[in-house]
Design a protein that fits this description.
Strand 6 and strand 7 form a beta hairpin. The strands form two sheets. The protein has a six-stranded antiparallel beta sheet with strand order 1-2-3-10-5-8, with no helix packed on it. The protein folds into two domains: about 80 residues, lambda repressor-like DNA-binding domains (434 Repressor (Amino-terminal Domain), Orthogonal Bundle), CATH 1.10.260; about 100 residues, Jelly Rolls, CATH 2.60.120.10. By secondary structure, the chain is of the alpha+beta class. Helix 2 crosses helix 4. The radius of gyration is 17 Å and the shape is globular. It contains five helices and ten strands, in the order H-H-H-H-E-E-E-E-E-E-E-E-E-E-H.
Length: about 200
Amino acid sequence: MEGLRHAVGNRIRDLRIARGTSLSELARESNVAKATLSNIEAGEANPTLDTLWSLSIALKVPLSSFFGEPQPGVKVIRSGDMKPVSGKALRGRLAAMFDVEASRIELFTGTLLKGVVQESPAHLRGVVEHVLVHRGRIKVGPRGQEMIVEAGDYLRMEADQPHSYEALTDDAFMTLVMQYPHEPESIRVLNAIGAAAADAP
């Protein structure tokens, strides 16, 4: 976990610098305290899912960008190698990330704590979330338009608006697929990171 914490912190710092944003500016744009952000970048703090969402929105990059870039070819990701992500209600893992044509895809699996609402801010423009419930019942959707989905149900929603997840049973388990369009700003920042890595000795 310590190695992952440092890797995520380094990645956030690199993305911030590539975007030409100061620590103070990113703290203000993401509503994350400057001291907290400094500790995250130094690998001294373990950011929650809520904090990572706020930073990804401010930096205009997919959340999975904090964990590296997709690798081409056939790839098996073992259960123990999946990246843990936790929020107020969600206990999950980033299982995979990959690019398909003009989209970045993130695949998460996770459980939700019953009776605790996982609020999510509006994501980047054009982001779509796909939810497949494997077990239990979940209340999910844009604010004021929530729907109840249960085992075997699939839900699709535009996620560039505030939305939430809430487990209605103790055993709620789901797969969440996030689909990001490749925005010009996101591409510019990620390309800058790639170029810097290529130039490194």
